[in-house]
Amino acid sequence: MESLLPPGFGLGGHIETTLRGISPGQLHAADFQGIVPNSDNDFILRTLILSMNGVGETIPNPAVGCIALKNDEIIGFGATEAYGGRHAERVAFGNLKDNGHSTENSAVYVTLEPCSHHGKQPPCCELFQNAGVSRVVVALGDPNPLVNGRGLRYLEAAGARVLLSHGQSAAAASAWHLPFLVQQTQNRPLIVGKWAQTLDGVVADSHHNSKWITGPEARAHGHWLRLKYDITAVGLGTLLADAPALTARDCWLPNSRQPHACVIDPLGHSIPSDKRFQDALAKLVAAADNRKVAVVCPREHVKELKGKLPAAVSLIGFPPPNEAGRIGEMLKSVWQQDETISWLGRMPQSVYIEGGSTLLSLMIEAEALDALHVFIAPKLLGGDAHRVGNGTHKSPQLSMAAHFDILSTSVLGGDMLLELVSKPIKESFFVRG
Ligand code: AOF
Ligand code: ZN
Fold first, then answer.
1. Which tens digits make up the pLDDT trace of 192-235?
2. Which is the closest atom of ligand 1 to the Cα of 62?
3. Which protein residue has the closest C-alpha to ligand 1 atom 2?
4. How far, in Å, is the centroid of ligand 2 from the Cα of 335?
5. Taking the model in full, what pTM does it have?
């Protein structure tokens, strides 16, 4: 059976690229990470790799890529600039005319339907029309109600031949743009779980030690994912055990963006006088400039923490679950609360939950995770130490298993990366007629 995504691509884009990195200036290089572009699909994959330059810094806009071709030669290329800046198309066409390039009858590859509306930027469709573009290959429609097919129709009406991708290259674009797609169509952030485990599913040993289950490549790719997602979150136990910085490092860093950080204390167990807790929060604040940090906990517990945390740390309280309710459900909707929106200045577009097993298990039990990145080390540990599961049942039965669909499988150094999506996400964004 053919896998959903092309080999080498995952939810975080082209995986090798996140480890080694390529700058747009190298786009002309013959060896383009092994992809020889001799079809529209191959060119779309190259355009997707290019779009990775805008990772994270474009949020809440999507990080789009665009390549312009004339007589089968690349004449321009670009990725979306930091939020509020130029769209990928405008970067690609930047100085073409000034530099004496004729754009008449050029062909364009773009990872998302070009916009047709006036937002912070003028419409890209108008740019293509003025440039005389005659062929446009689009990986994915833009569900933004201001666009939503208008861009494709505009270009066709202007006389261009417009092709929409299908198959693996379209799925790779859906994977890359997934946070934007979910936010636009469901008005909520994409919620993603990540963990590293041994073959027998252990995520930390009996001493809470998880350093390191996987090798450096897997860890670097995990850091890249922090760059991609809006907020990186960990549970209280992981904060106390690891004091993580939650920054992107040791991976390709095409821009200076770092993620916002949340500590989730689902059961209200944090103790304000605990020095470890205070120091770990201060470390999160100090680890990156321009990042926002918050503790998310039950509303009742907010009262106990108020005024006692480092000044830069905000508090976000979620209401108690109603009778049959589950905490994971509260942790799904907390991102849409007014307090969260005023903390970040907007609704988050994606939340990347890195552990630990208690938090992830609560989220899985409530069907609150849309996608999973599971790094698997070829090791066996045994024992009954920390595992991720469907809730915290002591003796679960097979009929209780949570089920995800496989999106991609990759080898990363000596480890594996398995990426999965929930059924609703698969049906909405990865299965096309
Ligand atoms: C494109 N190319 O590179 C991106 C697009 O406020 P604005 O003008 O920046 O428009 C934001 C919207 O434009 C965003 O919600 C999405 O629909 C689209 N993003 N479109 O043609 C790009 N980033
Ligand atoms: Zn645009």
1. 999 999 999 988 777 777 778 899 999 999 999 999 999 999 99
2. 23
3. 87
4. 28
5. 0.94
Q: Please identify every residue annotated as catalytic.
A: 89
Domain 188-429: homologous superfamily in CATH: Dihydrofolate Reductase, subunit A (3.40.430.10)
Q: Where are the domains of the chain?
A: 9-175, 188-429
Task: Determine which residue's CA is closest to atom 10 belonging to ligand 1.
Answer: 119
The 10s digit of each residue's pLDDT in 96-134 is 776 778 899 999 999 999 999 998 889 999 999 999 999
Distance 53 CA to ligand 1 centre (A): 16
Ligand 1 atom closest to Cα of residue 142: 17
Ligand 1: residue of 48, 87, 146 to mutate (most ligand atoms within 8 A of CB) is 87
Domain spanning 9-175: which CATH class is it, in words? alpha beta
**Distance between terminal CA atoms of the chain?**
18
State the amino acid at position 158 in one-letter form: A
